[in-house]
Amino acid sequence: MQTLDLDRICFEDTERVLDVGCGEGRLSLHTYSHANVQAVGVDMCLEDLQTAQSRFAEFDEKSTEKQFSLSQTDAYRLPFPDHCFDKVFCSEVLEHLHEYPKALAEIERVLKPGGVFVASVPRWWPEKICWWLSAAYHEVEGGHVRIFKEQELQSAIEEFGFTRFDKHWAHSLHSPYWWLRCMFWKNQEENWAVKLYHRFLVWDLMAQPALTKILDTLLNPIMGKSVVLYFRKGLKP
After folding, report:
1. Cβ proximity of 43 and 96 under 8 Å
2. Element (H or E) spanning 191, and its range?
3. Among 166, 170, 181, 194, which residue has the least CB neighbours within 10 Å?
4. What pLDDT sits at residue 89?
5. Which positions of the chain have pLDDT values less than 70?
6. Using an 8 Å Cβ cutoff, are 29 and 56 in contact?
7. Is 208 exposed, middle or buried (0-12, 13-18, 19+ CB in 10 A)?
8. Residue-wise over 178-189: b if at least 16 C-beta within 10 A, else e?
9. Which CATH class is domain 6-233?
10. CA 114 to chain centre
């Protein structure tokens, strides 16, 4: 399952692409397989990085035109020189950061002028329902510390010299799943409704039927779980 739409971005061969908060490498590996780029993932969790590295074996194309690497660090201190990446992605991460402007400043620093920055966060009102249904949902260690409104996030990013050129919403069919999990938080693993909806999502991911694709597209503007914002650094559209 991918939140960012890489088809909305133009990649050049040998470009360097950074995935901030890569976790187990889902987006980093997808980027590596999508284009001839040097894909770099960073995350604080060593265990997640080890999982990402082990998964790379399934994606390794033994190509001299692309590379994949990982580094353990946090978003406030990226271990890279200024202006060294052509693209930077930060998907479902900013909502976890107490000082997210510091991360945005680091992203701006390492991104080349004219480079592309893409950020995604949980959408305000589906996320608000989750918080209303269960305090434990966002109070767990490493959980969400804020709910972004779309314009609030866009303005915060634009303060660092970025200009938005595209946006969309994603994963409308996942919103009810998280509402169910929050509603039955204490016994969510055993709850029949949660398990049934999870089976539906797994089936949808594997089978990718046309009907659910159409339904997701129609519902995303209304109840998409995430909002995805695409920016260019220092240039007008």
Report:
1. no
2. none
3. 166
4. 98
5. 235-237
6. yes
7. exposed
8. bbbbbebbeebe
9. alpha beta
10. 21
